[in-house]
Write a structure and sequence with these properties.
By secondary structure, the protein is mostly helical. The chain has a single domain, classed as Orthogonal Bundle (MetI-like fold), CATH 1.10.3720.10. Helices cover 63% and strands 6% of the residues. The protein contains 13 helices and four strands. A two-stranded antiparallel sheet has the order 1-2. Strands 3-4 form a two-stranded antiparallel ribbon. The radius of gyration is 23 Å and the shape is globular. The chain starts with a helix and ends with a helix.
């Protein structure tokens, strides 16, 4: 009953929750739907009323969202790319907080000058747009041509927001450290990591969930910006002429479908619109769920 009353009072959260269930269903079971082309067959040309047409094809009964420039069903591309997209976003966010939690705790304990490092990272990256920093590193020749580029790019994207997230979490550690129940851990002689596991984190799981879900939306937005300007997580160098190579996207993830957005907006707007729409809806879902969880954690905090 309490859950039902909460959902009725928070209609947007309830809508976002139902949309999340739908998104997860499409992500894991979409490829089995009868109207999804799992093979992504390419239609190089077709005849319509005696006229030869080449891709991209406009939205129609056959292609609900139209086709991409290769002649693949864009609806199927988006459905099949959902799993990869959410995996990359989730991986970057988890990796970020694996760095944030120990860094914030060490900064709280003022160990090894971590407080200064956290403040410096937070200050520096707050003045320089995140997308500029990622572009700067992504275009370095050692990263551009290495076979492990995808791994390095994921690590870089995760790291650039570590300062901001660690500074926020450090404030939560500072606030918890003055609570009365902390004295019991100190009295039994618990070490720093025992204090972290047993006395800090159990009271921060709710806030950590809010922070991480909010960051899922931020990571999605950043990947969209990178895709728009042609920075890919997964790429291949294709030889186009003697001694000349081009970088091509080899991913189905939604942000990477925006690589030719400048051209698509002027010619085949549906190619850029539908991936952007999918990302916008997903970011909305993450933000609304984070907002709903924040309301729950704020109520619980009032009883601690």
């Amino acid at each position: 009953m309490k859950t039902w009353r909460f959902l009725r009072r928070n209609l947007l959260f309830a809508i976002a929750l139902s949309m999340l269930v739908t998104l997860l269903f499409v992500t894991f079971f979409g490829e089995y739907l009868p109207f999804v082309d799992e093979q992504l067959e390419i239609e190089n040309h077709r005849m319509e009323d005696g006229v030869l047409k080449i891709p991209p094809y406009e939205p129609s009964k056959k292609y609900w969202f139209g086709s991409d420039s290769e002649g693949r069903d864009l609806f199927s591309v988006i459905v099949l790319g959902a799993k990869e997209t959410l995996f990359i976003v989730l991986l970057i966010t988890i990796l970020r907080y694996l760095m944030v939690i120990p860094l914030a705790f060490l900064a709280h304990k003022k160990v090894f000058g971590m407080g200064f490092i956290v403040r410096s990272l937070n200050t520096f990256f707050s003045y320089v747009p995140t997308v500029i920093i990622v572009i700067m590193f992504a275009l370095l020749p050692p990263l551009l041509f290495t076979s492990t580029r995808s791994i390095w790019l994921i690590v870089i994207i995760a790291f650039v927001e570590v300062g901001r997230a660690a500074a926020t979490l450090k404030e939560d550690f500072d606030a918890l450290s003055v609570r009365d129940y902390m004295e019991s851990g100190i009295a039994i002689g618990a070490g720093p990591w025992k204090m972290l596991r047993s006395y800090y984190l159990p009271f921060l799981y709710g806030k950590l969930a809010v922070y991480m879900i909010s960051d899922l939306g931020k990571v999605m937005f950043l990947l969209g910006q990178l895709g728009f300007i042609g920075i890919f997580i997964s790429q291949a160098l294709i030889q186009v002429d003697m001694g000349m190579f081009e970088i091509h996207n080899i991913s189905l993830s939604w942000p990477m479908l925006l690589e030719n957005a400048f051209l698509d907006i002027r010619t085949s707007i549906w190619i850029a619109f539908w991936p952007a729409f999918a990302m916008a809806i997903t970011i909305f879902i993450f933000n609304m769920i984070a907002q709903g969880l924040q309301q729950v954690t704020q109520r619980k905090d009032g009883f601690i």
